Amino acid sequence: MSALTSLLSLAVVAHTAEALVSPDGVGKLPALGWNSWNEFHCDINATVFETIAQRMVDLGLQDAGYVYVNIDDCWGDKNQRRDSATNEILPNSTRFPDGISGLADKVHSLGLKLGIYSDAGTSTCAGYAGSLGYEAIDAATFANWGIDYLKYDNCNVPANWSDEYAYNKDNGTSNAPPGYNWDTSNSAKRYHAMRDELLKQNRTIQFSMCIWGEAAVQTWGNGTGHSWRMYGDIYPSWSGQNGGTWGVTPILNHASFYWNSTDFWGHNDWDMLEVGIGDLTFEESRSHFAMWAALKSPLIIGTPLADVADDIVQILLNRELLAFNQDPAYGASAMPYKWGRNPDGTSDLKYPAQFWTGSSTEGIHVFMVNTADEEATLTADFAEIPGLKGAGDEFIVHDMWTGKDIGNFTDRVDVSLKVHDTAALRITLPDGSHPNPTWTTR
Ligand code: GAL
Questions:
Q1: What is the rounded distance in angstroms from the CA atom of residue 399 to the CA atom of residue 423?
Q2: Is the overall model pTM greater than 0.85, yes or no?
Q3: For a FRET experiment, which of 46, 222, 341, 442 has its CA 20 to 30 Å from that of 73?
Q4: Tens of pLDDT along 354-390?
Q5: Mean pLDDT value across residues 32-60
Q6: Does the active-site annotation cover 414?
Q7: 259 C-alpha vs ligand 1 centroid, how far in Å?
């Protein structure tokens, strides 16, 4: 076991907090929806959300389960910030002429839910009012407006709220004493404060913590929110990096060490989807979607939907990958069972683990990512797949992309993949039954 993996297993042992269990199953499964940030940044107004909400219905995304329409940063009144008498946070009245509650009514009338964004600091990342110290009034305001989901960011934390110890999310090390409980850190306290106020409201609000993997959040996120961001911001590129934002492979690399902190009611959030955006090819978009679904990440679409191409919509609508992500009986993430190109346990931002497996109601699944910069044939060797051990040597292999069986195979199946594409396979016994219903990844 490498130093990194042994540290990570310690972090997993410390992950004991009771999950945040909310009424009506809210937050039990990864959230599905749309968010404005990846494509619109601060250039948002009520029309953007009304148009998107209608498109989500028209494109069949709502029917597929995507229900949250999420407003990201920059919805507030940047100058006045709060009502001088009541301290209530103020929306930008030019961009949102009917207020946020007016928008909530429209979104709700379509059967969708509305999400909003705030920050556990004095200002949001883009400089709008933050909620630190205003948790009670802001939680009540959001509930009054009809908000269903809060993304809570981590910018502009004042010095008196900084953490006592430093945590390095890249390798899981810190200068805290052994056994230190990060649930007692100031970071955790800032997020607990908003959780506690949200829980006082007469409305269920899904709590999405945007804390970028800081303060060992994977050890206390489960008791605090329904999901927690685990890494820096995503960027629409396969393996590139743009300032503090990251392509798909660096995030997948991080996930190969931290997949184990996800289960029902608490999810690592690997950031919003960039499917069909930026530099991503069709195959890269497929891999991004398949792996985020396999990781049981919230699937929050960032694609502008106005003139989205049909092949991109079909990725987002993939019924079998969504079913894996939303499985009612198996809550754990897929895990890497073999790295492939690199020795197991290697951290590599460009060439992360390639061979992943998980279980669902339907069978054992294998996801094989062609990280090579050329076409490649990847082999799922049944003897190496933990959930198939002892289950026989002949299986039906089914392609989750086409929804069709590829055939019956003994010992192994080879799949040829275009550059940066991913094979998404479901494996069952020759009679179609589950090879190992009691096996899960955690
Ligand atoms: C970042 C966050 C992004 C986006 C942005 C808005 O901190 O990770 O997802 O919300 O702030 O300013």
A1: 8
A2: yes
A3: 222
A4: 999 999 999 999 999 999 999 999 999 999 999 999 9
A5: 97
A6: no
A7: 22
